[in-house]
Amino acid sequence: MTTLTTAIVADIGGTNTRVALTDGTEIRHDTIRRFRNSENAGIEPILETYLNELQITPQAVCVDVAGPVHDGIGQLTNLDWRVHPDRLTSTTGAGVAEVLNDLQAQGHALAHVTSDHLERLLPGHPAATDAPKLVVNIGTGLNAAPVYRAGGQTIVPPAEAGHVTLPAQTPAELRFKDWLAERHGTPGFEDVLSGRGLERLYAWHCLEDKNGAPLEAAEIMKAFGQGQDRATRTVAMFVRFFGRYASDLALVTLPFGGIYLVGGVVRHMGPHLMSMGFAEAFTDKGRFSDYMHQFPVSLLTDDYAALAGCANHLAERMNLG
Predict the structure, then answer these.
(1) CA separation for the pair 318, 312 (Å, rounded)
(2) Other beta carbons within 10 Å of 150
(3) What value does the mean pLDDT take over residues 180-202?
(4) How many CA atoms, within 13 angstroms, populate the side-chain half-sphere of residue 140?
(5) CA 223, CA 217: separation in Å to the nearest integer?
(6) pLDDT one-digit tens code per residue, 151-174
(7) Could you tell me the strand order of the sheet in which 73-75 lies?
(8) CA dist 219 to 190, 200, 225, 227, Å?
(9) How many CA atoms lie within 13 A of 162 on its CB side?
(10) What is the C-alpha to C-alpha distance for residues 156 and 135, in angstroms, rounded to an integer?
(11) 66 neighbors 80 (Cβ within 8 angstroms)
């Protein structure tokens, strides 16, 4: 068996990349550095700069990317970067290189998240330690993935769950869906549950009200904080769709170990979820409504969870030895 001592992990977002060293599954917070993607041609010069500063050769490297990973190679969705394991090893000198989707990294972090980084929204019922979990990310985009434990290993299958078809349950929602379809094709949940989704909901309310002008997401949340009616209706509609999305996926994956909400939009919307109807939308499943009370739902507030997930994945990978 191989014991992992020091590794380098990186979390590539749309704008910035964060890099850190690890000791086993622990992130060395004093080593965290942030780099602007626009100032670099890829992840390799970032890792070179970082390692030259610290004068260290890691045993392993793991990078998570905001985009799909196929055959171990990551492609950034909003950036023309490809992340290849062979280039990671040649750049860092590490013997092992892994590439994860950013949502997979969040899933690998769950076993090591402490209670001070969790805000419980719905209590759920007690479950076995290795019960399935579900991580849901709302940021620039939307995605979700189940998290399983088997044979001492964490398994997070890749997914593109943000693009499942958006449902509508009321006449107003049907009008919104038709309006959205005219502009963006078949509507998916990501078209609503993201920063730009909030803006689309607000723009549609302006059309319904026959007055007002579209606003950016930050302006909508400011108006909501001021108690403005249109912004309040917009946030309420957003939260209802969010509750349904989480509950639909809960019935598909049965995450008795909990549902964990992550991402930039979640962090902004989190304090308002319960007051704006998340619980009601989540449990609105007809004769299965009581069944929905089994699933705990929590906000994950650790900003470095993706880095921790990379560290945990490497520790498990190396211990396979």
Answers:
(1) 10
(2) 8
(3) 92
(4) 11
(5) 10
(6) 888 999 988 888 899 999 999 999
(7) 69-70, 73-75, 82-83
(8) 20, 13, 10, 12
(9) 19
(10) 10
(11) no
